Protein involved in rRNA processing (Komagataella phaffii), 221 residues
Amino acid sequence: MVLPEYQTSLLNKVDGSSTISIGEVKVICSVTGPIEAKPRQELPTQCAIEVNIRPEVGVGSTREKNMEDKLRVVLNGTINKFQYPRQLIQVHLHIISKSQATENNLKDLHACINGAYLALIDANISLLSSFLSTYAVINDDRLIFNPTSEQIQSSISHHLVCFDIKSGRADELLFVDSVGEFTEGELMTVLDQSIEEIESMNKIVRKTITEKVSRDYIWKY
């Protein structure tokens, strides 16, 4: 198992930022907004959400566009869009180091989802609920969360699960994506155990957020 590392408030020229490291994967996320939307982006009753994911080097390809679409699904279900009518929220992610698994991008997307959540919190964007994702593989009939690179390479199926979180408990399933060979029963097991994993992760993330709030609101005389 590889434990994630989180950090917020890294960049000072954006409204919110975060970095997340999960094994060899490292992602930096920045959030700008709410800002004035361009006429073609403006929505009369809610904000528009712009998502941009950049690879390690060069410009984005269909791989990054696919990840952007999936991340946008999660953000559309969790950002309180109606609080910011006719405005724009920009979420930019740069994958500094990507997963060594070439057959899918689920581990990278897992880092992007959780990095975006922390950056939105850092930017004080209103959310309908908290949310976190977890990544697991099935290897030799064992379900492994936060697997190592070696475990990923030898696994027969890969699963990304994202839940919203209310009152510290995983509530509604926001997004699930699976690659490989697996049965319906194995998928149900992944979903059930993901609830416990996400609730455990939430306790760690809350500590990071608490430390951020303490830094932001400390009184100095």
